[in-house]
Amino acid sequence: MPLRLRGKKKAKSKETAGLVEGEPTGAGGGSLSASRAPARRLVFHAQLAHGSATGRVEGFSSIQELYAQIAGAFEISPSEILYCTLNTPKIDMERLLGGQLGLEDFIFAHVKGIKKEVNVYKSEDSLGLTITDNGVGYAFIKRIKDGGVIDSVKTICVGDHIESINGENIVGWRHYDVAKKLKELKKEELFTMKLIEPKKAFEIEPRSKAGKSSGEKIGCGRATLRLRSKGPATVEEMPSETKAKAIEKIDDVLELYMGIRDIDLATTMFEAGKDKVNPDEFAVALDETLGDFAFPDEFVFDVWGVIGDAKRRGL
């Protein structure tokens, strides 16, 4: 009997979907059972990645509020902040700040640096890059594939913010919209991107393609602060090793099908499917939670397989 994976689709807006590389809604919009409201005012320390004194940030519940706190500490505009890394000032895409912040993590804010305009000839259907965003309107390059079209343009680097494509300003777009825009560009034609690279005190290391490293993996066994787009932040326990590995595999599937990496989106998908008994139920749950994406059936089956394997191993 064929599976009707889109039988009960419920549309949701991008705002209510709550997808940030910073903010999953969670299955049914609820919080994780292990979460609890912070019992005390948490204080974190931050620096500008290109060099600065240490500032204190506290009392924030979202990425937007955190950026405002950092901007206030260093007397800059929040719009100058491209993204933040945790525990390293390097442009390390495996240590990006997302929706979870370890209670002992040190925050490094990467701000706007040199602007550049590049022309790219799209010789292949795939450009060979992965896009992510900072949750507040800036999309940037997270990974460059060896031998891909973008790899041949040496002025384009991992960590560069994409400001416009063929003259169209994309500030405010989510990473999946930017990836779709690039994918839809015609093959064998030239296109132009305006980029902003993060400010550097000096060149720390050669241009990076940001391959996978153990730093990307979700930790387990320690508490984190979960930032939310609405409502107070909560302190949560990190997931079990089985769950963490499953979420990483879902993130791999996202990159394969959509050209994006988003641990928080992967977490949302895992939460939507962990209590479902078949792929039909899982597909309906995805449509209710993440209806804007309209994931293809092949994608749903692959993600369901990852969740099923995790359930068999015990969560």
UniProtKB/TrEMBL annotation:
Signal peptide: none
One GO MF term: identical protein binding
Protein name: GIPC PDZ domain containing family member 2
PANTHER family hit by this protein: PDZ DOMAIN-CONTAINING PROTEIN GIPC2 (PTHR12259:SF3), RGS-GAIP INTERACTING PROTEIN GIPC (PTHR12259)
Record's compositionally biased regions (Basic residues): 1-12
Domain PDZ: 117-184
Pfam families xrefs: GIPC1_GH1 (PF25083), GIPC1_GH2 (PF25082), PDZ (PF00595)
Lineage: Eukaryota, Metazoa, Chordata, Craniata, Vertebrata
SMART domains: PDZ
UniProt-annotated stretches for the region Disordered: 1-34
InterPro entries linked: GH2_GIPC (IPR055349), GIPC1-3_GH1 (IPR056814), GIPC1/2/3 (IPR017379), PDZ (IPR001478), PDZ_sf (IPR036034)
Protein source organism: Gorilla gorilla gorilla
Family label: Belongs to the GIPC family.
